[in-house]
Amino acid sequence: MKTKVLTLAVAAALLPTTSAWAAPTISDLEARINDLESRLTTNEQQTQQAESSASAFEFHGYARSGLLMNEHRTGATDTGPYMTAAGDLGAPVGRLGLEDTNYLEANLIHNRKLDNGSSAFFKIMLADGVETSNDWTADDSDLNVRQVYAQFSNLPSFTGAFENSTVWAGKRFDRDNFDIHFLDSDIVFLAGTGAGIYDVQMSDDWKANFSIYGRDFGSVESAGTDVENYVATMNNHIGQWQVMFSAMDSKDNEDVTDDSTATHRAKHGLHALLAYHANSFYGLQDGWSKSGVLIGSGLGAQLKAIGSDGNLNDDAKAVRAFTFGVKDINKTWSVAPALMAEYSQDRIKDNDEFKWGTFNVRVSQTFTENFEMVYEGSYQYMDLDNSVSSAKGSYYKATISPTLKLDTAAGFFERPELRFAVSYVDWSSDLDNYSVSTATGASTMGNGGETLFALQMETWF
Amino acid sequence: MKTKVLTLAVAAALLPTTSAWAAPTISDLEARINDLESRLTTNEQQTQQAESSASAFEFHGYARSGLLMNEHRTGATDTGPYMTAAGDLGAPVGRLGLEDTNYLEANLIHNRKLDNGSSAFFKIMLADGVETSNDWTADDSDLNVRQVYAQFSNLPSFTGAFENSTVWAGKRFDRDNFDIHFLDSDIVFLAGTGAGIYDVQMSDDWKANFSIYGRDFGSVESAGTDVENYVATMNNHIGQWQVMFSAMDSKDNEDVTDDSTATHRAKHGLHALLAYHANSFYGLQDGWSKSGVLIGSGLGAQLKAIGSDGNLNDDAKAVRAFTFGVKDINKTWSVAPALMAEYSQDRIKDNDEFKWGTFNVRVSQTFTENFEMVYEGSYQYMDLDNSVSSAKGSYYKATISPTLKLDTAAGFFERPELRFAVSYVDWSSDLDNYSVSTATGASTMGNGGETLFALQMETWF
Amino acid sequence: MKTKVLTLAVAAALLPTTSAWAAPTISDLEARINDLESRLTTNEQQTQQAESSASAFEFHGYARSGLLMNEHRTGATDTGPYMTAAGDLGAPVGRLGLEDTNYLEANLIHNRKLDNGSSAFFKIMLADGVETSNDWTADDSDLNVRQVYAQFSNLPSFTGAFENSTVWAGKRFDRDNFDIHFLDSDIVFLAGTGAGIYDVQMSDDWKANFSIYGRDFGSVESAGTDVENYVATMNNHIGQWQVMFSAMDSKDNEDVTDDSTATHRAKHGLHALLAYHANSFYGLQDGWSKSGVLIGSGLGAQLKAIGSDGNLNDDAKAVRAFTFGVKDINKTWSVAPALMAEYSQDRIKDNDEFKWGTFNVRVSQTFTENFEMVYEGSYQYMDLDNSVSSAKGSYYKATISPTLKLDTAAGFFERPELRFAVSYVDWSSDLDNYSVSTATGASTMGNGGETLFALQMETWF
Question: Which positions make up the signal peptide (chains A, B, C) (predicted)?
Answer without folding.
Answer: 1-22
